[in-house]
Amino acid sequence: MEKIKKIFIVCGEPSGDLLAGDLIAAINKLDPAIKIFGVGGAHLAKTKAEIFYNIKDLAVMGLFDVLKKLPKFLELKKIILKKINLEKPDCLILVDFSGFNLRLAKAINKRIPTIYYVSPQIWASREKRIGYIRKFVSKMVVLFKFEEEFYKQRQIQALYVGHPLIDIVKPTMPKQELINNFRFSPDKKTIALLPGSRKREIKLILPLMLKTAQLINKKMPDTQFVIAKSPAQEAQIYAQALRGFNLDLKIIDGRTYDCLEIADASLVCSGTATLEAAIIGKPFVIVYKMNLLNYLLYAPQVKVPFIGMVNIISKKKIVPEFIQFQAKPKMIAHAIIDLLQKPEQNKQMLEDLAYVKNSLGLPGAAQRAAKLILNFLQK
Q1: Consecutive sets of 10 residues in the chain, 379 residues long: mean pLDDT of each?
Q2: ∠ CA 335-320-225 to the nearest 5 degrees?
Q3: Which helix (H) or strand (E) holds 92?
Q4: Coil vs helix vs strand at 196
Q5: CATH code of 326's domain
């Protein structure tokens, strides 16, 4: 009788959990008998995977946040290593979350085959981490074509599968139905605010977005706003930020794609959400701010000219970026009003975003990754 294969998977943030859940669902479909367990969140929990540690509150933003949570990370590493020794999985899948996962890969030291799914962004900063990948990772499975080339140039084999978001990002219903469903006015312009999924991000970025919304509303009174709330965070964080603001605004929980679908324009926190907005095909601007000391520490390490993935893929600024000192409500409001009032500018951005969407590859990325992983397990 053939031994049942075991996979151990580790992700640490909501964006990684989304992609991990999609991957594991594809693996389960191809091989329902396989046993999967690991560290994840709500998306991974929806699959047949056994989650023995929930990632809630694991996401960090900058060095000082990492230092604050260091005891938690060290404890988690011990728990994982103990569980791996007990279960003896056939392979380990690491999903993004590079600060933690690369150190975990070092601790495992290829005692079990280690697959990295969703490459760390070492092409943007801290390229020295490539030494960890070369030494401790058995196989890289990447989502962007340029990543495959990046690793190839450095004599590391990486397998490109395309981006799973192409299959994942879909509104639940057409725009008009959503407007009725959410009880929005069909006669007003709708602007979506996506302040991120990490608690620290939301606390820093949402007040900035709300000040911007206030300025937009002053210039364009026929506007309404929607906040795409992260299901991973408590409602209280949003309620706190909203104090003192008088806006026609609704908070919608866990329906980011629907919020983007009804929006005439959006303010998007840098990260996975920029790709989600590109796939939905709605104009937006990128807003990002972090703790000043963290920014001063990380800014010199960044080698790419842009922060937004849509701009990195395009190799030009197709979406305005308002980062740190440029993240001023007056400037952001002006850019959004331009998108709403200048049809040519709006049209050009939508054409550029369509190019980004097409560059993400064909549908079925998670299935292709699942096949690669299962073939790897058979060897």
Answers
A1: 85 92 96 94 92 79 67 90 94 93 93 94 85 94 95 93 97 95 95 93 95 97 96 91 92 96 96 94 94 76 86 94 95 97 95 96 97 89
A2: 50
A3: strand 91-95
A4: coil
A5: 3.40.50.2000
The residues pairing with 211 across neighbouring beta strands, listed in sequence order, are none
In angstroms, the first-to-last Cα distance of the chain is 18
Query: Is the same domain home to 147 and 243?
Result: no
What is the CA 84 to chain-centroid distance, rounded?
27
Please tell me whether residues 181 and 119 are part of one structural domain. no
**pLDDT value at residue 4:** 84
- Whole-number Cα distances in Å, 121 to 124, 150, 307: 6, 11, 11
Is residue 14 in a domain?
yes
pLDDT at 170: 96
Q: How far does Cα 352 stand from its chain's mean position? A: 20
pLDDT 10s digits, 217-236 = 999 999 999 999 998 889 99
What one-character-per-residue DSSP string does 259-328 give?
HHHH-SEEEEESSHHHHHHHHHT--EEEEE---HHHHHHHGGGB-SS-SSHHHHHHTS-SS-EEEGGG--
For residue 37, the SS3 value is: strand
Tell me the pLDDT of the chain averaged across its residues. Answer: 92
Please check whether residue 326 is in contact with residue 359, taking contact to mean a CB–CB distance below 8 angstroms.
no
Phi first, then psi: give them for residue 62, nearest 5 degrees.
Answer: 90, 165
Residue-level length of the chain = 379
Same domain membership, residue 147 and residue 10: yes
Domain that holds residue 43: 6-164+364-378
Specify whether 334 is located in the same domain as 186: yes
Q: How many angstroms separate the CA atoms of 208 and 146, rounded?
A: 33
> Do 97 and 181 belong together in one domain?
no
The C-alpha atoms of residue 148 and residue 152 are separated, in whole angstroms, by: 6
β-strand partners of 190: 224
